Amino acid sequence: MELEVFKKNDVAILKISGDVDLYSSPQVRNKILALLAKTQKNLLVNLKDVSYMDSSGVATLVEALQLTNKRGGKLRLYHLGPAIRDVFELSRLDKVFDICETESQALNGIIAE
Amino acid sequence: MNKKPIIEIKDLVTYYGSRKVLDGINLQIMPGETMTILGRSGCGKSTLLRHIIGLSKPSSGKIFLKGQDITILTENQMLSIRRKIGMLFQGGALFNSMPVGDNVALPLREHTELEDSTIQIMTRMKLDQVGLAGFEDFMPAQLSGGMKKRAALARAIAMDPDMLFCDEPSAGLDPIVAVGIDHLILKLKKAFQMTIVIVTHELASVFLIADRVALLDEGRIIALGTVEELKNSTNKKVQQFFNRIPDPEKIDKDSYLNSLVGENNKL
Fold first, then answer.
1. Predicted ipTM?
2. Closest Cα of chain A to B68: distance in Å?
């Protein structure tokens, strides 16, 4: 699994590639915590190149969502492939997360901190 | 179809003492398939399940899980395979001294380096998937039989297994609760594309959830196929099982009389 961080209009974008599973999701968690610790209030997560995500990956994103909500920020997911979208739908978390089709949709209305 | 079997059993033979319990089992189970192992009490079906998950070693034969022969693995090597296996034991096997949430979290705490905050969210997700959202602080003794089975199922799927094994999942449950467990297994199969192996003698469960059935009799697979194929089988034992026909009553008059008057014990 690989993690890359980009900035667009000063908003942090985390791009995850590969499998997010029991063994790799702690890296995702650490990266998200580090980004949010750097006074980032809002975070976008690009899941285009995620081929597999298990419950630990989903739980990690749930924790990140709770953190951003507490800070009055936003966490948005985008570019979910059909398999990843299924994982969210089956846990009924598609109703909880802000899931966007494209990066520009995800950026829409997000204010850079 | 060009898939390789995820589980393959070759010429499996096992003895308990001098009694042959499994007698040359050959079986292939494909990824995503629900295979039910059906048979009368004592026919060897639970023994077969214990061998597939590596809890017992066969007298001879091979068992391949994802291409790896588990009959030659050490206990340590087997651990990494067991991490991708979920097992629902017949009695649920929950730890009665732990709340339900801790029971579900146990494999995650034992086998992963995940933070407890992540584990707690995963535990609640799993309990939600089995219809027990909000029950994490309940003790097993506070749950009904069906709820205990659901909690045990939540623990079995805690590590997102590729393969789920269930030993008599509806044993001891009333028909309504039993069919609820069957539907839950179907839902999990659809949701997670798991390969599921279920040992049972409940025909109603088999009709509902099986892709294929292996009918075991005296340690051998005497029929293998879809429910329809087995229903149409001309094999007498298959017909007896599917039509629920009791064994014919055989009485040896002399030996029965002797047993009643205690003559059998005399030399």
1. 0.91
2. 21
